Amino acid sequence: MKYWKLKLRASFIAVGVVIGSAQVAMTETLADALVGAYNHSGLLEQNRALLRAADEDVATAAAALLPIVNWAADVTRTVGDSVSTGFAGDLQSNDILTTTATIELIAQWQLYDFGADSARIEAQKETVLATRARLTSIEQQILLRAVAAFMNVRREVENVALRQNNVRLLTEELRAARDRFDVGEVTRTDVALAEAALAEARSGLAAAEGNLVQARAEYRNAVGRNPGNLTPPRALPGVPRDPASARAVALRTHPSLAEAQRRVAAAELLISAAERDMKPTVTLNSRIGVEDNLNSSAFSNTGSVGVEIGGPIYQGGRLSSLARRAMATRDSERSNLHIVRHDVEQDVSNAFADLLSARAQLEASERQISAARIAFQGVREEATLGARTTLDVLDAEQELLDAQANRIAAQANQYIAAYSLLSAQGLLTAERLRLPVQIYDPSAYYNLVKDGVAKKSRQGRQLDRVLRALQKD
Description:
Helix content is 63%, strand content 16%. The chain contains eleven helices and eight strands. Strand 4 (68-85) and strand 5 (91-112) form a beta hairpin. Helix 1 packs across helix 3 (116-182), helix 3 (116-182) packs antiparallel against helix 6 and helix 5 packs antiparallel against helix 7. The longest helix is centred in the first third of the chain and has 67 residues, at 116-182. It is elongated, with a radius of gyration of 38 Å.
């Protein structure tokens, strides 16, 4: 394939920039922006790591129900002397100098604790499910931010093009006013009005160009690359017809609500665990050891096994305090669930209202543009006949410009509101949008580690490969 370097110097109204090289802006769709945001987001990576940490908490809690085997080695050197009485009644002194080496295997297995550790395991499982729901909420935030960034760039590009066109028109208006002033058809006031309008238009263009720079920076941050030539979305996503239907969907599917419910369940289980910690535990203990006296040929093997039953009597109120703390945490999570439920319902209502408002604004702006264009053309014709002043023409042109700007904003707001409504319902995910990305499976890592993985085992080596694959350069 041959590449030809071209030097172009063209003004593109669609993007409002001058291209002076062979790099032509690539066409990008909204789906491309969503894919870029999903693959680029460091926030998603951060919360995936937090989810893996929560997965490990399950394995940590489950380890309490499994046998614990430790080893211990000891070398002891004993130095001293002993005094004894002989048969004749005299005192005899003997030096003591012995060295012994011992190695032991020590095993402990908790047989019964009235279900305290089992309750903690289940609480950690609920925490994992809550963290998964939190990850889905983060995914929605990332995708909605990408939608807003995409539509804002499009809006600012069109605003820049609109302002550039307005500057060109007002430049022609000023030239015409000066020509008419030279032949005595208008006064110096008309020329000054045209000059003021052109200056205002240039100021508006500078502000629009500044807004475009900021919108591009936000797009680069959200999507991970500079925007190309952004094409308009084909159609709005499907949304419910009424707020009640939208709220019903949100109460079933919104991840923030699911997260709050899981945290309540985890808090309930931790109360049960704290109460059962006050009960006795039954533990199986065993030891196997070898002792060697290095000063002689003495050598011995030892072993023991026993069942230990014990429980707390008094710990200064610590266990009772922990139980009350667990209850307070449960009450806090219940209150949070109440808050989240109402926030979800409000967010749905707000998003639905924003969508209806944007639709109405778009329809009104279309009618406003049609009427303003007719009025501008009529005023300009009347001005050529002397029936209208330069100020009338400039006012009519400004009204047309405002109407066109309102349409641009309404179009962007309509798409943002539609996707905000999907997010408010809990439906703005890569999977539901069928984005062409590698969907992150939150259960894959959990299934690897939930039962505890020894580092040197085959499963441990497989886990190491997974972790290396998850690392980002």
